[in-house]
Amino acid sequence: MKNAAYIKRTMSGTVFDTCNGLFLFLFTMLMVYPFLNILALSFNNGIDAARGGIYLWPRMFTTSNYEYVFSNKTLLRSAGVSVLRVVVGTVTGVLANALLGYIVSCRNFHGRKMMRLLFIITMYFSGGLIPTYLLMIRLGFINSFHVYWIPTLLSAYYMILTSSYIQNLPETLFESARIDGASELYIFSRIVMPLSVPMLACIAIYIGVSHWNAWFDVSLYSKDGRWDTLQIILYRLLNQANALAQILEQQRLMERMRTIQPQTVRAATTIIVTVPIIFIYPFFQRYFISGITIGAVKG
Amino acid sequence: MLLHHVDWRRAGKFKRIWKSFYTQRQLWLLCFPIIVWILLFAYYPMYGVLMAFFNYTPGREIFQSQFVGLAHFKRFISNPVFMQLLRNTLAMSSLGLTIGFSAPIIFSLMLTEIGHVRIKKLVQTISYLPHFISWVVAGSIVFLLLSSDGVINSLLINLDLTEQSIPFLTRGQYYWAVYTLANLWKSLGWSTIIYLSAIAGVDEELYQAGAIDGLGRLGMVRYITIPSILPTIVLLWILGIGGILNAGFEQHLILGNPMTQNYWDVLDTYSYRYGIQLGYYSMGTAVSLMKSIIGFSLVYMTNRISRRLLDLALF
User: Fold this and answer.
1) Where are the domains of chain A?
2) Chain A 228-247, CB below 8 Å of chain B: which residues?
3) For the structural domain made of B77-310, what CATH number should be given?
4) Reported ipTM
5) b or e along A28-46 (b: 16 or more beta carbons within 10 Å of the residue's beta carbon)?
C-alpha cells in the first residue's frame, strides 16, 4: 500500500520508512540470534564455553560435541525412533485424513452430515488429559510404538482442510468413474489423491512437524525408554543440566569427562533436533499460508 | 384398513433406507473404522470426565466407584494452594493478553508499511520459524541463553550492568518475564498471519478516498486500517478471554524447576501432577473440568458483552 501513487511522499515518511525497516531488520536478527548462539556453542570446547562470552562464533572450535552425540547409543536409537515416528505417523495420518475428507465431501452420501458433526464436536469438547491417559493404559499402549500414531490419526482440523479442497474438485469425475463401476477406494486412490497433491503435501508437512516435535506423549507413555524419541532425550538433558545448575560450579570440575560438558552437548543436540525443521522450512513455507486460509474460511 | 396402510408405508420407508444404505455400502464400510476410532479416542474420554464426581479407582468402571458428588471440587477450592495456582494462572495469562496480544498487532502494522516486498517476505519468513520448533528446543535455547555462563549474563557483566550473573532460571521472581518473553519469541510471527490477511483484505478504495480527503500515512493507519481489522482483533480477544485459564502447560514442565514452582504452578500443571504423577485421577480430572467449564462460560459472557456493545460476536 505504501507504494501506491496516491500516497504523498513526505520527508517524515521517508525517515519513518528507514527507521521502520531498520527496526524490523534488527528485530528479526534478534529472533534468529538465539539459533546462531546455540550453533556457536555447539562447536565450542565445553570447558571453554563454561567461561561464558560466546556470542556469534566459537572461540575454541571443536566437533567433539557432535562426535559425542553421534557415538552415544541412546541418542542414535532415539533419533531412529523419531524418524520412524515421523514416517509412520505422516503416511498414515495423510492417508486417513484424506480418506475422511473424501468421504465427507461426497455430496450424495447420507452419512456425510453425521460424520462431519462427529468430528466438529471434538473441536470444542474433549475428555482431557487424564481420561485419555487412562484409556491408553487400558488399551495396553504404554511402552508401545502405536501410541504415537493411532490416537493422533485423524483430526477435525485436517478433515476441514482436506474436504474443502476435495469439494472443489469436479464432482463429475467421481460420478463418471462410479458409473463405469469403479469402487470408492479406487476413485479415492486413482482420482482424488493424484489431484490433491498440493493439499496432501501441505498436511503432510504439518503432521510430520507435529510428530517430530511431540514430546509430552512420549514422556507419558514411553516408560521403559524403548520408544524414546530425540525430543524426550533433549528434555531429559535439560532437566539434568537444570539439576546441575543448582549444585553450583564445583560440580563441573568433578565431571568425569574433561572436555565434554553438558552445556555444549545440549547445544549440539538442540541443533541436531532443529536442523530437520530448518531444512524442510523452505519447502513448506509456500504451503502453510494457504493451509491456514483454507482452514480459516471453512472453519 | 388404516393400520395396514401405515404399515405399508413403514415397510416402504425401511426398504428405501436399506436400499440407499446398500447402494452406498462402500462408503459406509469405509466409515465404520473411522467411527470406531472416534468413539474410542474422542468420545470415550469425554465419558471418562465423569470420574470427577466419583472416587475412581483404575480397573473398575466409573459407575462402580463411590459417588462423591462435588467433594473433589470443594476440597480443591478450599486448599490454600488454590489461590496460588489462580494467581499464577491469571498473572501469566494477563501478561499474554496484554503484551502477547498487542505485539502481533503492532508488528503486523509495521510489516505492512514496509515497501520492499523482499524485505517484508524475509522478515515474515524468519519470524515464523520459532513457531515450528518444539517447546523442548525452545526451552533448551532459553536455558543456554539465560544460564549463568550464557550469552545474556556474559553481556550484562561485560557491560558492567551487573557484578554477578543473574539467576534468571532459578529465582521465581523472574519466571513470569522469562515465560512471557519465550512465548512471545515463539508465537509473535505466527500470530501476525491472521492480522496480515485481515489487512490485505481492506478495500484499496478506502485508502484512495482517504488520500483525497487528505489523510497522511499515519492517519490511514489510524482511521482506515485499524477500524477495518477491529473485528478480527475483537474476535481474537474473545477467544483470548476464554483461554484466560490456559496459562501454558508444557512450557512450565520445561522452563520451570522446583525452585521456581511457586511462580509457575498453574491449574493444568497441578492437574497433571496430581492426576497422573501421583495417581489421584478423580481429583486431577475435577481440576481440569472446572477449568474448562469456567473457560467456556467466560467465552460465552465476553461474547454476549461484545455483541451488545460492539455488535460483534463469535457465535
Assistant:
1) 65-299
2) 231-232, 234-235, 237-238, 241-242, 245-246
3) 1.10.3720.10
4) 0.87
5) beebeebbebbbbbbbbbb
| Sign of the torsion formed by the C-alpha atoms of A225, A229, A231 and A233 | positive
Q: Are strands B66-67 and B54-55 parallel, antiparallel or unpaired?
A: antiparallel
Kindly report, residue by residue over A74-90, the tens digit of the pLDDT. Answer: 888 999 999 999 999 99
Q: Which amino acid is at A236?
A: R
Task: Extract the C-alpha cell encoding A166.
Answer: 476435495
Domain ranges of chain B: 2-69, 77-310
Distance CA A251, CA A244 (A): 7
Residue window 5-24, chain A: list those with CB within 8 Å of chain B. Answer: 6-8, 10, 13, 16-17, 20-21, 23-24
Three cell numbers at B136? 523442548
Residue numbers in A near B197 (CB within 8 A): 293, 296
Question: Could you tell me if B25 and B32 are in contact, meaning their C-beta atoms sit under 8 angstroms apart?
Answer: no
How wide is the angle at C-alpha A191 spanned by C-alphas A188 and A194, nearest 5°? 100
Q: Check whether A165 has a pLDDT greater than 80.
A: yes
Mind listing the pLDDT tens digit for each residue in B219-239?
889 999 999 999 889 888 888
Of the candidates A53, A111, A235, which has its C-beta nearest B31's C-beta?
A111
Q: Measuring CA to CA, which residue among A33, A75, A49 is closest to residue A269?
A: A75
Q: To the nearest 10°, the Cα dihedral for A275, A281, A282, A286?
A: 180
Q: Which CATH class is domain A65-299?
A: mainly alpha
